[in-house]
Design a protein that fits this description.
By secondary structure, this protein is an alpha/beta fold. Helices cover 27% and strands 26% of the residues. Pfam families: Amidohydro_1 (PF01979).
């Protein structure tokens, strides 16, 4: 039996373009078609009061939300709580992200993700940001836990990818060999360079070996000089390399982001990530990260999160706010800002059926007001 839902009353953004005065037909949790409002089929009609209906947001880097940090409790329950915390802001698929931690915590996160992805409640895989990072670019991570990739790690990552489906690993170029990158990439693991002080040449070698992305462009990496382009220069210049960006007004100056958006070789290769911590979706003003207090400082476009020494420690931004920031400060059209939160991250993560509203795609949806505030979200066509 086909159970149809018919969404009308809003502009529809299908991942590529807008449709006006059309209806979205959802059948059994999948997109069936975008059609004229004349002669609609039978089904449950959901009348939306203006605004925009889009595919739900996809976030490749979420450390926490809803008052929960994955590092504090790397369990399937934590992952689902984090996903629920971000759902109210339109994110319907995310990768819970474990920052640099012990081997036991990493193993626990991998086991948790195996179960969490089966719930179909927004956990789309796992992101391991460390421990294979460079102490010289540690950011808020613990340098004493950082180390090079070993053969046993490669084998463990490959087993994890086979069980989880989508596995993103962030590594410093200094901590992983070209041969290891090639083996990981050929096994379907999404390898990203981040927290790295590498040269542009070292980055390019790894891009050509299969590195797919760069983690939070500009932050915690070698910067671009006119004779030493660093990781930033290599990432912007390389045509097939994707780059996540944190657009919250604190992590990167908007002038740098606008420059990267204009300069990046390869269409649609920059996408939004939140790098969010537990305070998103929570009323608390502080939390603990690896035994250190992180506090919320109000001001600017949104609050920022800092350690006692002022080091930024993730973000306090949600994906809907990031889209508003893109339109307001980065000279993006609403269509391009939406792509950077839906279509592009889904393509980066190779998540088929996510990030667009083509026939057969998942009916993961978000309804936005004209001011890009979230009214409602759906997963598999069901209210989330």
């Amino acid at each position: 039996m086909i159970l149809r839902k018919i969404f009308t009353g809003a502009r529809i953004f299908d991942g590529e373009k807008f449709h006006d005065e059309k209806a979205l037909i959802v059948a059994n949790g999948r997109v069936e078609a975008i059609v004229s409002c004349n002669g609609l089929p039978e089904g449950e009609t959901i009348l939306l009061d203006g605004g925009v209906l889009s595919a739900g947001f996809v976030d490749a880097q979420v450390n926490g939300g809803g008052g929960r940090m994955l590092n504090d409790e790397p369990s399937a329950a934590s992952m689902c709580i984090i996903a629920e915390g971000h759902r109210r802001y339109g994110t319907t698929a995310l990768l819970p992200t474990l920052i640099t931690d012990t081997a036991d915590a990493t193993a626990a996160a991998i086991e948790a993700a195996k179960d969490a992805v089966k719930t179909h409640r927004g956990v789309a895989g796992l992101h391991l940001e460390g421990p294979h990072l460079a102490p010289a670019r540690k950011g808020a991570h613990l340098a004493e836990l950082m180390r090079p990739v070993e053969d046993k790690d490669v084998k463990a990552f490959i087993r994890a990818r086979e069980a989880i489906g989508t596995l993103l690993v962030t590594m410093a170029a200094e901590q992983v060999t070209v041969a290891q990158v090639r083996e990981l990439s050929e096994a379907g693991i999404i390898v990203s360079i981040g927290h790295s002080d590498c040269s542009s040449e070292a980055a390019e070698e790894r891009f050509d070996a299969g590195v797919r992305g760069v983690t939070h462009l500009f932050n915690a990496m070698s910067q671009m000089g006119h004779r030493a382009p660093g990781l930033v220069g290599a990432a912007i210049d390389h045509p097939s390399t994707w780059c996540g960006i944190i657009a919250d007004g604190h992590h990167v100056d908007p002038k740098a982001l606008r420059t990267a958006l204009r300069a990046k070789r390869g269409e649609g290769k920059l996408f939004f990530v939140t790098d969010a911590m537990s305070l998103v979706g929570s009323r608390k003003d502080s939390f603990t990260l690896n035994g250190r207090t992180v506090r919320r400082e109000k001001g600017g476009f949104c609050s920022k999160l800092v350690l006692a020494d002022g080091t930024l420690a993730g973000s306090d931004v949600d994906m809907a706010s990031t889209i508003r920031y893109g339109v307001t400060y980065l000279d993006l059209t609403l269509a391009e800002a939406l792509r950077m939160a839906t279509l592009y991250p889904a393509r980066f993560l190779r998540l088929d059926g996510y990030g667009h509203l083509s026939p057969g795609a998942r009916a993961d949806l978000v309804h936005l007001t004209d001011a890009v505030e979230v009214n409602a979200a759906w997963i598999d066509g069901e209210a989330a």
